[in-house]
Amino acid sequence: MIKNTFTRKKFFAINPNMDHSQTPIKPNLSSTCPSCSARVSEETLAENYRVCAKCKHHFTMSAGQRIELIVDSGSFQEFNGGLASINILDFPGYEEKLEKAEQKSGLREAIITGYASIGGYDIVLAVMESDFMMASMGSVVGEKVSRAIERAIERRCPVIICTSSGGARMQEGMIALMQMAKTSAAVNKLNEAGLLYIAILTNPTTGGVSASFASLADIIIAEPGALVGFAGPRVIKQTIGQQLPEKFQRSEFLLEHGMIDIIVERSQIREKLTCLLSLHKGGCRG
Amino acid sequence: MIKNTFTRKKFFAINPNMDHSQTPIKPNLSSTCPSCSARVSEETLAENYRVCAKCKHHFTMSAGQRIELIVDSGSFQEFNGGLASINILDFPGYEEKLEKAEQKSGLREAIITGYASIGGYDIVLAVMESDFMMASMGSVVGEKVSRAIERAIERRCPVIICTSSGGARMQEGMIALMQMAKTSAAVNKLNEAGLLYIAILTNPTTGGVSASFASLADIIIAEPGALVGFAGPRVIKQTIGQQLPEKFQRSEFLLEHGMIDIIVERSQIREKLTCLLSLHKGGCRG
Amino acid sequence: MVKRQFDYEQKLKDLKAKLEELNDLSKNMQFDLSSEIEILEHKIQEDRELRYQNLVPWEKVLLSRHPERPGAVDYIAALCDEWIELQGDRCFGEDAAMIAGIGSFEGQALTILSYRKGKNTKENLQYNFGMPHPEGYRKIQRLLRQAEKFNRPVLTFIDTPGAYPGIGAEERGQAWAISQVLMTMAGLRVPVLAIVTGEGGSGGALALAVSDRLLMLANAVFAVASPEACASILWKDLERVEEMAQAMKITAQDLYELGIVDEIIAEPVGGAHLDYEATIASIKDAIRKHLPVIVGCDRDELLARRYEKLRSIGKFKTDE
Amino acid sequence: MVKRQFDYEQKLKDLKAKLEELNDLSKNMQFDLSSEIEILEHKIQEDRELRYQNLVPWEKVLLSRHPERPGAVDYIAALCDEWIELQGDRCFGEDAAMIAGIGSFEGQALTILSYRKGKNTKENLQYNFGMPHPEGYRKIQRLLRQAEKFNRPVLTFIDTPGAYPGIGAEERGQAWAISQVLMTMAGLRVPVLAIVTGEGGSGGALALAVSDRLLMLANAVFAVASPEACASILWKDLERVEEMAQAMKITAQDLYELGIVDEIIAEPVGGAHLDYEATIASIKDAIRKHLPVIVGCDRDELLARRYEKLRSIGKFKTDE
Ligand SMILES: [Zn+2]
Ligand SMILES: [Zn+2]
Question: Is residue B151 part of a domain?
């Protein structure tokens, strides 16, 4: 088990070129809850898993915060952190977008992958970062997910992926779309190897990611209130020309419609994951 | 291929104790169509596959007539014709019911099984007979279906079953219910052997037969207007206390709801089966 | 008049109350009836045990349907050190009439699948009286395949009046959903232990009973259809339901004799609902006895035996 | 102003009509312009061929969506000596936006799976403009497993604007249905040949494109999302759709160069809809060429190669 390689607060600084630790803490000292309009200080938010104490609204979490939330302290060891996107199609303005995304998120791409442990169980973890171009899936996301799965197969350990995505990355055209097939093929290999795959769907998970590896997990967990679906609500509203039902495509709606196994609050997630890993004896075929 | 063992009109007289050929021809010379109230002579009916020329209502067919309808002339060779029911549970009145059923249908039980060919392709065929206690499934039906499937596995040829049933035979209690599991297990073996199984659902196919081998076929054909479902319409009406939608549980309804592959009229059935057998090179795995 | 409730316990309670009154009264009047009353109490106790040893099938039907009878949730809570409920068929809906998940029983991870009944009106409505829609069976189907992927044994509890007979259920292929579960369980490459804990009604209950071992609580019943349905269909006489319950051979004892049930699990006198702890202890013992045997069995042999067991059910004559 | 229809053929027709008028007029006036007109006609013909060799991507989008373009039904009818359509997902419904069945192509039985578009308003409504609901993908899923059972190769045709974005589709798990097909096709133990015949739009189209060989008609397009959607989302400007179509690299030629498409199938000059026979002949040739190779390939090797092909798609830099 990889442990204590980093201090709790700096677990992600694997790539020496990039110090992720600067990004999560935002300068503004208080925010307005988008759901109940309560004022909440960043400090209170941080203490409360970035959940509004009043209405349970789940604020966005950075990938770094999420890793800290779920893994054993200091156990995260990033791999493939150096993979970065290139402008394959010479798509106008893509380089600039990538640069901005890097600045905004402090990451090289929309996903972080690595080894970690949860409750003492070794796992491979991938966490998407919506601050990076809405965590759209291009070559790098597809490649890092596939490599993460392949590493889990090598080590015979479970895979946990925290998803959030606006879909395929249009700037990479069909190359981006094909990442759906590539990651689905990788999940198929994981299944053949009899290894556990848990997906944690967070707000929002749509498009190509929802219709590939996100919905192929053995066990699908969703955060309360997360929007998950193939088509975005705006597209649907435009197509059908009518209002959408309340809670449409939200976790609670998905649970009712049989699409997910369980809704877990952030405060419970590490415990639930530990329980699942324990029930799967770490994740391998009995 | 087994051929010309019998003349076309006497294909079923395998069991020397029983001359089935007497039964199909009914004494009354004309009937009233239950759907459009037209008067139809038995002769016209016989010429027209027992389908009302006016409204396409499918009159009940005896198992013997159905065998004649679908197999190559004279190719049918019955097996396990001697299997007959006993009163396992000492259920009051069961013997009398069996005797009456035998008299009414001219058969020993609610199903005939045997070898046959269709379009020159060897098959194992099972045909249920609703004149025998509404073709309810007891030990004998379950046993004959299982044996038919096992013979097909031995010979590596496809299985075709024409179903019609009121469900499990209550007089045999749990023994009857368990035939659902037994026949489903047999179909599982057939799948493992990679052999083709075609079900032809005829009016009515309900209860334990619908929820076991009838709905487990690779290709599910239904006759027009056939009632197929798990719960009978009367039970449903009682339970929910409201009228049922028109065409509820009928073939056309089932097709729309994705439960069957295709509706085939009697005049087309032999041709369609031949085509399917040809497309499956007789029915074996490529 | 058909008995709709098994009210022996109530009558007994009344009797005991009367006895108490008698005792009080006699004390007031300075009579000493204590030894007589003791004898009476002893007789009552004896009669009770005898009574429960001689329940007629219909009484067992009533007991098996007792609203306070322990259900899946009680067993899971008592059996599992760890438990995670998993939901949904990934197609259409989550069916609360079935409960499914992964639990750990004394260190052994199990996929546990069951019907779920309520203990009060609100729960009954929520769980649809334990009558599943196709979504329930498709959830089971999904989790059976998951159990197979992880080579995890399956434990099922059976307690349902049957699959729900409704329009939506038929529209979405109740028959198709059930048959898939039957076929999947027949060929499932992990050990399956099934326990009938309450009423097992029709094909909808059979779906979870295809197994390597089928056990049954002493007062549980398992029937091709409810005695009510059989009486009304076969005899057109709902009043003869007690007689029908007898004729159908639906008790654990009958089914053990018929070779369908492998073992009967004892219940406390008066029925499982009077003593959850004792019932759960019996069930635990039964699992401890049977699970290791099937878990230890070679998979090919296990499947061959499961097929042989199913294949051999049925009695008939052959005259060729 | 964005071009909404590819009207070159209409303009050509107008031009030819004018030429005819000119000819008639000159004859009336006793001029002999026949040699000049012949030269003109020849030039027009040359120009036409050149024009079609130099279509811009947006023009190909318009051609690929041409209402008279041959569709799945045309190909199946022309290819198959025998054909049986199979319907239904066995769960919820039959989706007419997809057509599926078993056909025989020159003696080889195939499971054929495709989207289905209409050629007129009535058909378009009936087939939902070729946009499937989850039921469509679940029908495909079922028939993929069936193909595997019978070791029967799979042929797919791709021509769809994408999966339908509607309430019911989301309620019943569009994303779940599509991902299952993607995963199943990635690991399917039979050869899969896929042909993009019209427009391939988004993940809803990708579902049938996971294959051992991906072929594409010369005027077909395949895109991560429609150029309209991309222009409106990325550039907030629907007027720039032609430019977007160019930037996205969606033509057969682009995708061949990117290594996603294995071969381009030639179309008759003017597009497939002008000459069904020639189009079908090209498609037949392509199937004759590719199918035997993948059918003859060892299954394990086929699957390893399929994975390798998918796995290798993607370009990025590494700086560690
Ligand atoms: Zn709030
Ligand atoms: Zn008529």
Answer: yes
